[in-house]
Design brief:
Transcription Regulator spoIIAA; 28% strand; 127 residues; alpha/beta; five-stranded mixed sheet; single chain; 5 strands
Length: 127
């Protein structure tokens, strides 16, 4: 299955839902490019939802590492959400699960960013 992505904004967080494979070639390049565009646009809170990613190879892992490093250089943060067992196992085997913040729940992933009063007040109802 070819790599696909859907972007949405959830409160002050950019959610990128990924589908298919992240492998050598266009898939990993597309992921790096997409996140690079978000960072260039000033996005600092990015969640990659990997629930529908059925395979990732070493180049795809490299893309995740590049995305993570690029975000850190811009004082931004990229977190991983809904990893499939296969993707989680790859991160465990490579010991990269300790590098990434990994969540099974979107609300917990969003809350992990913390935030300033004006950011949370802007998105909270009744504030």
């Amino acid at each position: 299955m070819a790599f696909e992505s859907t972007r949405s904004k959830v409160d002050s967080v950019t959610l990128l839902s990924l589908k298919g494979t992240i492998v050598a070639g266009n898939d990993s390049e597309a992921l790096s490019s997409l996140v690079g565009e978000f960072l260039a646009a000033g996005e600092t809170r990015i969640i990659l939802d990997l629930a529908k990613v059925n395979f990732i190879d070493s180049t795809g892992i490299g893309a995740l590492i590049r995305v993570h490093s690029s975000a850190m250089r811009k004082t931004a943060s990229v977190k991983l959400l809904h990893l499939t067992k296969r993707v989680y196992d790859v991160l465990q085997i490579t010991r990269l699960s300790s590098v990434f913040e990994i969540y099974d729940d979107l609300e917990k992933a969003k809350a992990s960013f913390g935030g300033t009063a004006e950011e949370s007040g802007a998105s909270a109802s009744g504030a």
